[in-house]
Design brief:
The chain is of the alpha+beta class. It has helices at residues 4-20, 66-70; strands spanning 27-35, 40-48.
């Protein structure tokens, strides 16, 4: 059965995974239409990963863990 809240939870998790992989502008969206006559739902999921970003820090050392909080 269609469970919109469960679907949205999974999409939020997937978007967070993309962002943690360096796609900081990732967007994951869904659109659902219902057909009452056939008792069906059509779910369309759109994924825009955005650009892949890799950061490299050079220069003076930062205190432990500081770089992670800046990113």
């Amino acid at each position: 059965p269609y469970d919109r809240l469960a679907l949205l939870d999974r999409l939020v998790d997937y978007e967070a995974e993309l962002r943690s992989d360096g796609h900081y502008q990732a967007r994951v969206r869904e659109a659902t239409t219902f057909d009452d006559e056939d008792h069906t739902a059509r779910v369309t999921i759109s994924v825009d990963t955005g650009p892949l970003v890799r950061l490299r820090f050079t220069g003076d050392e930062l205190p432990g863990g500081t770089l992670d909080t800046l990113v």
